[in-house]
Design goal:
Blueprint: H1 2-12, E1 20-23, E2 27-29, H2 34-38, E3 48-50, H3 51-54, E4 59-62, E5 64-69, E6 74-79, E7 84-89, E8 93-95, E9 99-101, H4 109-112, E10 114-115, H5 119-137, H6 145-149, E11 150-154, H7 158-174, E12 187-191, H8 203-215, E13 218-221, E14 226-229, E15 233-236, E16 241-243, E17 247-249, E18 253-255, E19 266-267, E20 270-272, E21 285-287, E22 292-293, E23 295-296, E24 301-302, H9 307-326, E25 339-343, E26 349-353, E27 356-360, H10 361-374, H11 378-393, H12 410-416
Parallel strand pairs: 1-4, 8-21, 10-17, 11-12, 11-17, 12-13, 20-22
Antiparallel strand pairs: 2-3, 5-6, 6-7, 9-18, 14-15, 15-16, 19-20, 23-24, 25-26, 26-27
Helix pairs in contact: 1-9
Length: 420
């Protein structure tokens, strides 16, 4: 998206290029706020921006990437209800396919776990939380409340901590509207494979976040992993068995499966690129984000696959492609992390910015301020700010969205097909 936006600016200045963005969704998702949708802090569409409103000069193809042919320089795509197939030729190809969830072949996990990568994931989790409270509140469900009121999140990184903090706030506020439920019936568990959560922020902030979540009645299992999952149970490596039908998995990612089909060199499944984000040996092929192994010559390692790196990689990749087309000079990708921030519930957060640590309300306020400024489009900034303001004044929404179409009895379906 950020590569396309850089091309958009170049086209506005008169660049003579033809650019097409292919994407499965017709919107750009601002993932840092995904957990707020799951916890009813933000309206569903306020963190997404329609691509056709963001890009007026860059062409957009709403569909799936099915195949990549680097030899013939073509991209196979499909679209529509009938999955019509097309082959798009290219002179330059930017690979920004992202990553998929890695379930590590844990028994029962892939078919039962919820994830937190897409807008649909956030909506499904929100629906699950509300549906569980509704079902547990029924008097006939007294004997079956444990699986409904126990919630497990696996993963002690940013996604897992932000998700469980938002879930905890939502559930403990919502439960008071259900006459047969009490807050002490809730059990909200974070499973972390390391000694402390949020290792990217360092030991001090990780321990602070852990202490605050514990004070908010989140149960943390450190140095622990999920070993098996059934419809009503999650088994942990420390011997604990939790009765639950809700496991949110944020503990691992894998490079996009299409990358396996490419003949170019890879490191741990990610496409190797040089400092200009070019794929060596394949002129005109570029890669960035989660699917690229981008060298960091300062550290001798690779740049982390985070959003703040990816959006800057997108901009540099577009500029280097334009330089190549015009016969100009390419520039290397050089960037160091400015800061890391995470909300941990109850208007509390942790942050490290330019080497300075922040915690408590000020860190939470910094998180909201910085990400509000980074949210694309002024319209969305206003809507999110309004949602946050109303959240101070009113309780969270408990509407359960039904996304499935009601089934039609066979007799009625047959009758509807008869000619009038």
């Amino acid at each position: 998206m950020y590569a396309a936006l850089e091309f958009e600016r170049a086209l506005a200045r008169g660049a003579d290029v033809d650019v097409t963005l292919v994407n499965y969704d017709n919107f750009f998702l601002f993932t840092p706020m995904l957990h707020e949708v799951a916890a009813s802090d933000l309206d569903v569409t306020n963190i997404v921006s329609p691509i056709r409103k963001l890009l007026r000069r860059v062409s957009f193809f709403h569909g799936d990437v099915e195949a990549l042919d680097l030899v013939q320089k073509r991209v196979g795509v499909s679209h529509g209800h009938e999955k019509h197939c097309h082959s798009l030729p290219y002179d330059h190809l930017v690979l920004a396919l992202g990553a998929t969830t890695n379930f590590y072949d844990i028994p029962g996990l892939a078919g039962r776990a919820l994830t937190m990568k897409t807008l649909s994931d956030a909506i499904v989790l929100r629906n699950r939380l509300i549906a569980n409270l509704e079902e547990a509140d029924c008097e006939c469900g007294t004997a079956f409340r444990a699986p409904l009121l126990n919630f497990v999140v696996a993963g002690g990184g940013f996604a897992g901590v932000e998700t469980i903090a938002a879930m905890n706030d939502f559930l403990r506020e919502a439960v008071r509207f259900f006459p047969h439920l009490r807050e002490d019936m809730l059990r909200i568990i974070l499973v972390n494979s390391r000694n402390t959560i949020l290792p990217e922020l360092g030991q001090e902030l990780g321990l602070y976040a852990q202490r605050k979540l514990t004070e908010q009645k989140v149960e943390i299992h450190s140095n622990c992993k999920v070993t098996a999952v059934t419809d009503q149970e999650v088994r942990l490596s420390d011997g604990t068995t939790v009765q639950t039908n809700t496991l949110v998995w944020t503990a691992g990612i894998s490079p996009h499966p299409l990358l396996e089909t490419l003949p170019c060199p890879k490191t741990r499944g990610r496409v190797q690129v040089n400092e200009y984000l070019e794929v060596p040996g394949w002129p005109g092929v570029w890669a960035l984000g989660d699917c690229a192994h981008v060298p960091n010559h300062k550290t001798g390692e690779s740049h982390p696959p985070t959003a703040q790196h990816a959006l800057r990689e997108g901009k540099v990749a577009a500029q280097n492609i334009l330089a190549t087309v015009r016969g100009g000079t390419k520039k290397p990708f050089v960037y160091s992390t400015i800061g890391l921030l995470a909300p941990i519930g109850k208007r509390t957060g942790v942050a490290t910015i330019l080497g300075v640590n922040f915690s408590g309300f000020i860190a939470w306020w910094l998180w909201r301020t910085i990400y509000l400024l980074k949210l694309p489009r002024f319209e969305k900034k206003v809507l999110v700010a309004l949602d946050w303001t109303l959240d101070v004044l009113f309780s969270k929404d408990l509407v359960h969205f039904r996304t499935a179409r009601p089934s039609v009895p066979p007799s009625e379906e047959a009758a509807s097909e008869k000619p009038a």
